[in-house]
Specification:
alpha/beta, Rossmann fold, five-stranded parallel sheet, 5 strands
Length: about 140
């Protein structure tokens, strides 16, 4: 099942991208990485992605800016925001802008796996509810 889920990890730090790729690939997810929001949007234009896992603090385009674009152009894609600044306001802002989940850095490998899985099931539940309304 997990091998049908594509996660796009967006972070300007190469070591964080490599860590996320290692953890999520080990867990059976298909993983793509991008170094910034522009690259992430380019990837989303060219291939299907189930979940975007994005850092908030990035140069060029912040994670919040990326989140706004994702929710308007790719509403079916789940979004998980990562932050090293886990204050209540940052988390609340991410959720109010439409993030499905958030995680605070540093995290343990099992925590990122749980957050991705929880986001996936939340998205699948929403899709099922939408299908029931239509059908």
């Amino acid at each position: 099942m997990k091998n049908t889920i594509t996660v796009l990890a967006v972070d300007d730090e190469p070591m964080m991208r490599a860590l996320l790729e290692k953890i999520l690939a080990r867990d059976g997810y298909r993983i793509i990485t991008a170094e910034d929001g522009a690259m992430a949007l380019s990837i989303l234009e060219s291939q299907p992605v189930s979940i975007v896992l994005s850092d908030i603090q990035m140069p060029k385009m912040s994670g919040f800016e990326l989140l706004k674009v994702l929710k308007s152009r790719f509403p079916e894609v789940g979004v998980i925001m990562m932050t090293a600044f886990g204050d209540t306001f940052t988390v609340k802002d991410a959720l109010l802008l439409g993030a499905d989940e958030y995680i605070t850095k540093p995290f343990k490998s099992y925590e990122i796996s749980l957050v991705v899985e929880r986001a996936y099931w939340r998205i699948m539940s929403a899709v099922a509810r939408s299908a029931e309304k239509v059908g």
